[in-house]
Amino acid sequence: MKMAKFNIPLLFGMIFSVSAGLLLGIGAFTFHYAKGTSYLSNDPKACINCHVMQEYFDSWIKSSHRQAATCNDCHIPHAFPAKYIAKMKNGWNHSKAFTLQNFPEPIRITQGNLVSLQQNCIHCHDIMTGNIAGHREAAEGTARCADCHRSVGHMQLS
Amino acid sequence: MSRILVFVGTILITALVTVGVTALLMNVQERKAESRWKQVKVVDLDETSVDPKEWAKNYPNEYDSYKRTVDTARTRYGGSEAYSKIDQTPIWKRIFSGYAFGVEYREERGHAFSLEDQKLTERTKQFSQPGACLQCHAGGMKQIYEIAGNGDLHAGFAKVNKMPLQEAWKLTRGHPIACIDCHDPKTMELRVTRPGFLNGIKELKKLEGIENYDPNTMATRQEMRAFVCGQCHVEYFFKGPQKQLTYPWSKGLKVEQIEKFYEEDGHIDWKHAETGAPVLKAQHPEFELWSQGIHARSGVTCADCHMPYKREGAMKVTDHHIRSPLLNASRACLPCHHFSEKEMIDRAETIQQRTQDLMTRAETALEALLDGIVEAKKRGASDEDLKTAFEMQKKAQWRLDFVSAENSMGFHAPQETARILAESIDYARQGQVAAQSLK
Prior knowledge:
The complex is a heterodimer of chains A (158) and B (439). Chain A is mainly alpha-helical and 158 residues long. Chain A has 2 domains: 33 residues; 106 residues, Multiheme cytochrome fold. Helices cover 54% and strands 0% of the residues of chain A. The longest helix of chain A is centred in the first third of the chain and has 26 residues. In chain B, helix 19 packs parallel to helix 21. The termini of chain B are far apart. Classes of the chains: A mainly alpha (158), B mainly alpha (439). The interface between A and B is medium-sized, with 30 and 33 residues.
C-alpha cells in the first residue's frame, strides 16, 4: 500500500489562509465596530465616537456657530489633500491617546491645529476681518480670533 | 526547510497582529461601555445615614476621593501637615501670650481628621472648651442637634453649645465631616446644616434688605458651592455665658465691619498677658476674605478650585479630595486660565510671597508696639495712660491675625489682604508712638 504523500506546503498554505482570513474578519469587524468610515465624513457625531468629546459636542449644539459650522469646518483644513492629512494626523494622535488613556487634562489644542483654526475663522469671516487681518500680529499668529471669541464654537470646558 | 520557516514565521506574525487587533477591539468596547456607565443606586439614604460608608455604596467615586483627605501634603505656605505654626514663627507665641493658641497652634490636617484633631490639641486638653466647638468638627451635626433639641435644630444647637465639649463628644457617632453635612440624602442637592451659618447669613442678608434669608431655599446652586464651605471656614465667636456660636456678620464681612460688630457687642477674646490689652483672636475667615476677592466677584466659588471636576471613564465627577488647588493646579486653574500649570502656580505663589513679606513687616511692627507698651509700663504708665496704645494693639493684632489665620496666604483676595496688613502696620506704629510718648 502506498502512503498518501503528506503535502506540507498545502497544509501551511491552508493554515495561513485561514488565519489571514480571521485577521481580516476581526480587523473588518473592529473597523466597523469603531465606526471607522464615519471619520471620512464631516458629521460632528463622528467626533463623539469618543466620549471625551461629548461635552464639547453638547455645548456646540447650543452655540452660535451650530447653524453655520461643524467641528471640521473650524478644526480641519478645507482643501484637498491638507484636509485628509490633518485627519490622519489627528486621527492617529487621538486614537493613541484615547486607547492608552495617557493624555493630560484639560485637553488643549495643539500648535498646528491652532493655525488651522485661525485660518478657518478667516475663511468665512474674510470680508469682516479684511481690514484687521493684515496686522502683523495676525500674520504672525500672536493675535488670534479665538483668543477673545473663545466660546463661539463651544464653551471652554475641561 | 527554509520554506517551512517562512510559513511558520508568517503565521506567527499574523497571530501577533491579530492579538493587537483584538486588544484594540476590546479597548474600543471598553471605552464604549464607559460612556454608558450610569449611577447605580444600591441603598436608600436618609437623614440617619451619617456613616459615609453607606453613601459609598451609591457614590463610590466621590467616596474614594473623600477618603483621600487623610493625605498630608505641604505647599509653600500651608498644606495639610500638622506642623506647629508658633514654633515656625515664634513671635506668635508672644502675640498669643495668655491665650490657648500660645500653647498649641498647628496647621490643620484634612477633613478626615476634623474630629480626631480636636481631641488631640492641647487647646482642648489643657483648657475647658464649650460644646459649641463641635459644630464644625463632627459629621451628622444636623441629627445630633435635632435629637438634643427634640426635633428642633436651633434648640438643640443652643443646648449643645453650652455643654462642656467632652460631653458633646459623646453625642457624635465618631465621624469627621461627612457627606450628610453638605448633601440632602434624598436628592443629593447641596444644603447647609450648620445653624451658626444659617443665623449668620440671615443677618448678613438683612443688610442687603432681604428678610428671613434661608440659603437652602433661596440660594443659587453656585452660591451653595460656597455656602456649604462657609458653614465652617469663617470667623466666629461664642456669645455670652450661653456660649452661643455666632458669626459676626450683621455689619458685613470686611475686617473692619466685623471689628465694629465686636466693638458694639463688647466682645473680647482675652487679655494679653504681657501688655494687659483686651484683644481679639481671628479664626479662619476664608469665606469672608474670599468674598472680597476677584474670584468671588467673578462667581467662582470654593468648590470650583478646591473640588474641581475630574473625569472617571466618561463620567464627570466632583473631586471630593478637598485640598489646596496648588496641589492640583491643572484641574483647578486651567479650565478657566489658558496658561500652563507652572505659570498658574507661579502667579499664586507670587501673591503669597508678597503677602508673607507684608505679614513679616506687620509682625515686626506689632512686636515694636508690644515692646513700647512693656517699656512704658516699666516707666510707670497705668492702663488708663495706655488706653490709646491698647486700642492700637487690638486693631493691629486683629488685622494681622485676620490674614495669618486665614488659610490662603492672601490668595483669596490679594489687594484686600494688602490693605488689611497696611492698616495693621499703621496701627501698630501709631500705638508704638503713643506708648513711647508717655513720660
